[in-house]
Amino acid sequence: MSQTAHAADHPSTKDYVRIAIFLAVLTAIEVALFYLDEAVDMNGWDGPLLVGLSTIKFIAVVGWFMHLRFEDSFLSRFFSAGFVLAMTLYGVMLAAFGAIAIFG
Amino acid sequence: MADTFELEESADIPNSHAGDHHVVHESTGIDNRKLGMWVFLSSEFLFFGAFISNYLLYGNRDFDSVVPRDIYDIPFTSISSFVLLMSSLTMVLAHHALSTGDQNGTKTWLMATALLGSVFLGGQVFEFYEFVTVKDMTLTSNPASSAFYMLTGFHGAHVGIGILMLLSLFGIARRQGGLSEKHGMNLELVGLYWHFVDIIWIVIFTIVYLLGAS
What we know:
The structure holds two protein chains of two kinds.
Chain A: H1 3-9, H2 13-39, H3 46-65, H4 73-97
Helix pairs in contact in A: 2-3
Chain B: H1 2-10, H2 32-58, H3 74-99, H4 103-134, H5 143-176, H6 181-213
Helix pairs in contact in B: 2-5, 2-6, 3-4, 3-6, 4-5, 5-6
């Protein structure tokens, strides 16, 4: 693939900067939520919110910075398989030991 | 023999460069080096998953000695996280610069990524030093401290390896006046590794620090 064609397929520098700003804002919200939870009782909503924000950041970096959304779906399947396998294995293990209660 | 096989296999694949002097090794339509890196990163989920699970098992328990959740410096770690997040931006800009033929931009962004990674690593060394000398929490203080040091320490080791790879690429680019097509693939692989280290920290920062301390 030529360099010009490669550049046309991928986001521009401005797009990458916008994504980085988006990620920085999400991080700031995460930290704000942490202190908000110390100031007022969030009835356990801080955990799911923090995990949700973290998941959005995770997907943004994998999809845009690692270019997975522009790659062959074969790579996505490989990558997702490792993630799902790890989540399942350790999720079952943590549930067995009762440690997942940290989120609730 | 193996190369001949790969050339024959890749002859029908549109993305193949079988006619070029630079042979792309592939039998799936994807460069084997890139596929190998994605498989490696996929396996790293199991590696870090074990340490994160270990922390989740012990991090929330009480022990006679000081535990990590009581001594976290969230503002400091938040800034470290921001620095590592921005290093992902400089990394992708290095890759983007190379794809547009901007060799000087590639070198600049590679060095910026290595510097930001070094700042993050320096912050982690400072944090460990504070925890050990001021807060008196060592690797063997209790299972929670062991789990914390093992998880964040191994992540730091990954960052350190990433910095070495970035500096190697920068050195090659400086010596040869730019990165060739072959080294361009190396930059892509190092970039994938670096972004992976970043996403693991996104998880650690949330689960270990923010949820752990709240």
